[in-house]
Amino acid sequence: MKLYGCLIFVMLVAAGINVHAQERSEQPYVKVEGEVTQSLKLYQSDLEKMKKVTVKHQGHDSIAHSYTGVPVIDLLNRAGVTMDKQLRGKNLAKYLLVTATDGYQVVFSLAELDTSFNDKQIILAYEMNDKPIPANSGPFQLIVPGEKKPARSCREVSSFIIRSARD
Questions:
Q1: What pTM was computed for the model?
Q2: Radius of gyration (Cα) for the chain, nearest Å?
Q3: Which one of 20, 64, 95, 135 is most buried, counting C-beta atoms within 10 A?
């Protein structure tokens, strides 16, 4: 009987671990890939552990909102993207392609994102007005404050791909 009880306990523990692993794999994430030294797959829990910033931005609804997230430059640095002092010469032909789950795409030169070139604070947001981003817009949004049109502030971000215009 003791052996039977131990077997059930082991099966339940194994099932619990399997369920937990399955839950994580079903959570939304953002990939950082392409010309990087380390590809990343970042879940919201990973982003919440990073430096967070809050910016004000008037979005597609023409209402100013407060967005909280991670500076895109931090994500790119974590993936080992060519930035700062290495961003010169042929490396200035590199760019970031941001893709959303609905197929929408926007492009940034790496110099636009690099704080050694400008003071823009572009973030990957996971909260809007201190709440999770609504399902029809999230769970992740790219927020680009200061642009006259919010066209590059895109919803439902799924990947960041680093490429070179030389290709």
A1: 0.82
A2: 20
A3: 95
| Lookup result for tokens 């981003």 | 133
Let me know if 148 is exposed, middle or buried by CB neighbors in 10 A (0-12, 13-18, 19+).
exposed
Answer for the pair 71, 51: CB distance below 8 angstroms, yes or no: yes
What average pLDDT values come out for the chain (167 residues) when binned by 10 residues?
45 40 68 97 96 89 90 96 92 96 96 91 96 92 91 96 88
The CA-CA-CA angle for residues 64, 47, 161, to 5°, reads: 90
Domain boundaries, the chain: 29-164
Look-up of token digits 């404050």: 145
User: In the prediction, which pLDDT does 25 show?
Assistant: 56
Q: Are strands 157-164 and 29-34 parallel, antiparallel or unpaired?
A: parallel
b (16+ CB within 10 A) / e for 18-35: eeeeeeeeeeebbbbebb
